[in-house]
Specification:
- This protein is mainly alpha-helical and 192 residues long.
- It has one domain: Four Helix Bundle (Hemerythrin (Met), subunit A).
- 70% of the residues lie in helices and 4% in strands.
- The chain has six helices and two strands, in the order H-E-E-H-H-H-H-H.
- A hairpin with a 2-residue loop joins strand 1 and strand 2.
- Helix 2 packs antiparallel against helix 3, helix 3 packs antiparallel against helix 4 and helix 3 packs parallel to helix 5.
């Protein structure tokens, strides 16, 4: 259990804490500025999410830099990412902040690409993260943060950046999924 894997595990353990702050009504007062409102719960959840999301690059960097890449890390890192993003998105659906269809698109793509990677592994291939996969992650994190903080500061100029970012995340997510399948179609044997 090296440092990189501990950071990855910490990201997994932060998931229920974020969900707690999003879904449990702690009866804290709201912050109100003109038409903008946010709860302390959401602020805490957003801060924890930002910390957790930022550890994604950190654990990978440490593992490569210190030559600590392990099979456990290869398994846990993408799992931690998917748990974090999926859990927060499902919580945001429950809160009425994002459409369920967007979350279904994002989670479905994650299952599909994970399945493709498993098939590739069975065939002796490794599918590396693509640039579109990295853009997908950045778009999803941006959208989630905008949703968590109730579209701050764009709420003051009546621009629904949170919805715009959600649509962009869904489109890039879909495209990146298609990109993985098109570039790795040789891995799938449809004759079996």
């Amino acid at each position: 259990m090296n440092l990189a894997n501990r950071i990855t595990l910490a990201r997994i353990f932060l998931v229920p804490i974020i969900m707690f702050f999003l879904l449990v009504n702690l009866k804290f007062p709201h912050i109100r500025v003109e038409q903008f409102t946010i709860t302390y719960n959401q602020i805490v959840a957003a801060l924890i999410f930002i910390v957790a999301a930022s550890t994604d690059s950190l654990d990978g960097y440490i593992a490569r830099k210190r030559k600590l890449v392990t099979n456990l890390g290869k398994l846990l890192d993408p799992l931690a990412d998917k748990l974090l993003v999926s859990a927060v998105l499902v919580s945001l659906v429950e809160m009425g902040k994002v459409g369920a269809w967007i979350v279904i698109v994002i989670i479905s793509r994650e299952f599909a690409v994970t399945g493709l990677r498993q098939i590739a592994l069975l065939e002796g291939h490794v599918i590396a993260a693509s640039k579109w996969g990295k853009w997908k992650t950045a778009a999803q994190i941006t959208a989630i943060i905008a949703l968590l903080i109730n579209n701050f500061p764009f709420a003051f100029i009546n621009f629904r950046f949170d919805m715009f970012a959600s649509w962009v995340a869904a489109i890039i997510t879909l495209y990146s999924g298609f990109d993985y399948f098109i570039k790795n179609k040789h891995v799938i044997n449809f004759n079996e």
